[in-house]
Amino acid sequence: MGSGEDVGSTMSGSGTGTGEEGGTAEGEGSSGGTSPESGSAETGDATATETGDATATSSEGTTEETGTGTSTGTGTDTTADTGTDGGSDTDTGTDTAADTGSTGTGTTGTETCRYVDAVFAVDNSGSMVEEIAALQNVFDAFPAALLDVGNGLENFQLGVIDGCAESPYLHDTGDAMGACDFSTAANYMSSDSTMLQSEFDCVIDLSTDGYMGMPDACSGNNDDENPDIAAAYAVSDPAINNQNDGFLRDGSVLFIVAITDENETPSPSHTPQEVYDMIVAAKGGRVEDVVFLAAAGGSDCDGAYGSAEDAVRLQAVAALFEAEGQGLFWDLCDGNLEDAFDMALALIDAACMPG
After folding, report:
1. Distance from CA of residue 197 to its chain's centroid?
2. Of 30, 189, 193, 259, which has fewest CB within 10 angstroms of its CB?
């Protein structure tokens, strides 16, 4: 038998095949197959000892084999060989193998998210003093808890913004301290910073000049109390590719927190569905890579954090994420903002684990 590259074999008659993988088959019929061996078209009686990978398709099935085998038969064999052939190979018949070996190996791993990019969008009106103080208390335990989600994050990034969607730029300036000088040299923080707590304390003291000391474009007449829209704009073009460039990473879970004690008057005007769509689009249309926490009034109340209006509109935005298992609405009338974050962390943990 010669050497060469064949693309297939056509066999008819009867034969027996035995291979190193423990499979033997006998029968009659016809089969067509490809065998990575070396050879040419032949007619006659032959015995072949072969080493290589083979795939045989017969009237009884298809088998992929790797090993050494011997086959005998009579007839015509046209074979496309790319392997090593130790003799002549003329085989006619039904050649199937009942293998006890395997044709290959594969690995299935557990992949979890490595990053979270979090946006805290907070209404900065004068009535939010209690809520902002509560948020500062929550942050004491938040970094360690967030880093522990999934199988453990590599890091997270955190941006803070007020409720002015007209200036959707993550803040790097605090009201009292001025420039917060984040370790990232950008307008967002990283959990890698050894000064993360003091950086957050600086920027959560919200300023209407929060981005590079430049005044917000809002008038202060209810147009600065739209944290969900501000967050959506912050992670969308043009801001995400300019002032907020580098914040949103591929492969991260986007965690948005929107807090207000008002029932929003949307400015710019957007429906809840449009806000939802903008946020999801920021993650390539994958809502499973988003977790949305809204904290606002579930009714008109005087609660643990002072008065709050029934935030009907923000409830509607949160409901769209809740319907996908990716959101939560927390009633500020009940206080206990730390419980809201615990529940949101559970959603982030679920988002970070494979389905």
Report:
1. 28
2. 30
